Amino acid sequence: MKKRSSSALTTVIAVLLVAGCAAHKPTPKPTENQATLREDLDVASLGIEKIPVPHRKTGAEQAGSSGRLEATQDTLQHSASQLVLGYRVQICATPDEQEARSYLHEALLKFPDRGVYLTFDSPYYKVRVGDCKSRYEAEELQKLVQKNGFPDAWVVRTKVYANPEAAKKAEEPEQPPEN
Question: pTM for the whole thing?
């Protein structure tokens, strides 16, 4: 009996050793064409004061010039107005960008004074209306939005602009003084 249990134990240990050695792969060394990661690199020591960042087009610029129809996105472009926790009315969430832009265009026509936003939250494009600070205000806006052709609209809690008028003014180009 002792011989059988020690034989079984020896077999288990041998299998574990073989499996453990077979599972270990040595880390390959980078070839000439592969980049290596340098963790000791200090970017400040390079002496570059400003790193050029290319201009990203806003939603309105990407959609083309459309008169007073301006699509805005929830990005840092609205630094003139502080973001606070609030509510918006979402009228669509779709993976199709063209469908979302169609909803955006329709919403901009129906609610030009409310602030209409197109955001991308992978994998969905979302179109939202308003900058409501209270749930009650958002529910009233939801009723208005539903009456104006978006029956499936719903209220979502998100960050909104504390002063949306300031954000709009910051986006508008300055008009040259008339002589």
Answer: 0.51
